[in-house]
Amino acid sequence: MAGLTFAHHILLPKPSFFLHSPKSLTKATNGFNTFLRRHKSTQTISSALLELGGVQISKQDVVRDEPTNNVPDLIFTKLGLQLHRRDNHPLGILKNAIYEYFDSNYNNQFNKFDDLCPIVTTKENFDDVLVPADHVSRSYNDTYYIDAETVLRCHTSAHQADLLRKGYSNFLVTGDVYRRDSIDSTHYPVFHQMEGVRVFSPKDWYDSGMDGTLYAANDLKACLEGLARHLFGAVEMRWVDSYFPFTNPSFELEIYFQEKWLEVLGCGVMEQEILKRGGKTDNVAWAFGLGLERLAMVLFDIPDIRLFWSTDKRFTSQFTKGQLGIKFKPFSKYPPCYKDMSFWINDSFTENNLCEIVRGVAGDLAEEVQLIDNFTNKKGLTSHCYRITYRSMERSLTDDEINQLQGNVRDQVQRQMNVELR
Ligand code: DAH
């Protein structure tokens, strides 16, 4: 089970990779080409150009048949959609509600960014926020690489350092983020995050009698408790100590919702090194990151993460700009279809690779991929049995259609993963 999260159970219900031993990393071998340099040479070839954050992107810039590229076609089709910028979409409504909280409590001091290009360098995505060189999030199994030095951002924290260097001190960054992952109702390889950063100067904490770190941590907690009340009303909350490479101390906020403790966000006092590199040596800052789908699923009662991508009017017409309280009414539930497949795995097998193949074949018809049996025989061979659930959110699927999908999945799994089907 690989999940690219930076702390225990933070934005998605996955165990942290900090709890597992580090996996071996496939180091990319070639290339000093940055995206931008390559981008210039390919720009003229393409007819379908996306405009993102002032950068024009063509498919050839993102999906390439090279060993250092692991971006599938399906991911390219999501790049320009920017669900978080649609005022009538649950993610846009939630983003705007958070904006409203910051605007009214901080006198419009927060600069808001929601159109920064999701194509970033490994330096921005990892090094600038102090993610260690051997951290599992850097692996090709967890992150989409365009080339050895360019990725689809796996978190909005990728923009922290750059915005600090540009002189911003209070800002919110909302954007689509990309992670190779497993398949179930709360995981999708593209989702949305919002990052918040606030920088303090010595004069801010001087009169408080506290040191800068304690002052920032208290301010952070008060701010985020207020945000949670703004979104959820009078809820019970608790703070849990956590770990992130970019903050110290680090915390998670949990709220008690529908009889469960729900992780809402990760945050902390920014590592001094990040500020120092941004030219802010005497300052202290806080930062937080939250997953918009996670919160929107709870706030709008949305049962499956694939629905956010639906263009079905029965979904899209249920939401209205500015209305956070609306509960989604499921329009119908079509029957699921289960297909099992067993194979002997090899050393390079990963569940994320399997899921990538399933998504490539079945797209959003794949609802869940679940390991249901796992054993090792006397010869030391390990067998996995996976159950794939196929279901459309919008229509009934025919037996023929599903058999064909499953046949294709079996074919591709055998061919691409070199495993022995049983
Ligand atoms: N980047 C983290 C993640 O994707 C979330 C996060 C945690 C962002 C703590 C922050 C932070 O800015 O301070 O899991």
TrEMBL record:
Cross-referenced InterPro entries: aa-tRNA-synth_II (IPR006195), aa-tRNA-synth_II/BPL/LPL (IPR045864), Fdx_antiC-bd (IPR005121), Fdx_antiC-bd_sf (IPR036690), Phe-tRNA-synth_IIc_mito (IPR004530), Phenylalanyl-tRNA_Synthase (IPR002319)
A GO cellular component term found in this entry reads: mitochondrial matrix
What this protein catalyses is: tRNA(Phe) + L-phenylalanine + ATP = L-phenylalanyl-tRNA(Phe) + AMP + diphosphate + H(+)
Sorted alphabetically, which SMART domains does this protein's record hold? FDX-ACB
What's the short name of a Pfam family annotated to this entry? FDX-ACB
Its keywords, alphabetically, are: Aminoacyl-tRNA synthetase, ATP-binding, Ligase, Mitochondrion, Nucleotide-binding, Protein biosynthesis, Transit peptide
Q: Which residues cross the membrane?
A: none
Which GO MF term does the entry hold, naming one?
tRNA binding
Q: Give every Aminoacyl-transfer RNA synthetases class-II family profile domain span.
A: 175-330
- The FDX-ACB domain, residue ranges: 332-422
Would the keyword Cell cycle be found if you checked this record's keyword annotation? no
Keyword flag Ubl conjugation? no
Q: Where in the cell is it found?
A: Mitochondrion matrix
A GO BP term here is:
phenylalanyl-tRNA aminoacylation
What family does this belong to?
A: Belongs to the class-II aminoacyl-tRNA synthetase family.
Q: What role does this protein play?
A: Is responsible for the charging of tRNA(Phe) with phenylalanine in mitochondrial translation.
Q: What is this protein called?
A: phenylalanine--tRNA ligase
Q: What organism does the UniProt record list as the source?
A: Mikania micrantha
